[in-house]
Amino acid sequence: MSSIQVTILYFGRLRELVGTSSEKLDFDPSISYTSQTILVRIIENRPILKSFLISNCFRLAVDQEYLPESDFLYRRVVSPSSGAVSSFIGITRDNFEGRRVTRLSYEAYEPMALKELNRLCDDARRKFVNIEHIAISHRLGDVPISDISVAIYVSGPHRRDVLDAVSFLIEQLKANIPIWKKEFYEDYNDNNKNNKSNDNNSNISTSSYSWKENR
Question: Where does this protein have compositionally biased stretches of type Low complexity (predicted)?
Answer without folding.
Answer: 191-203
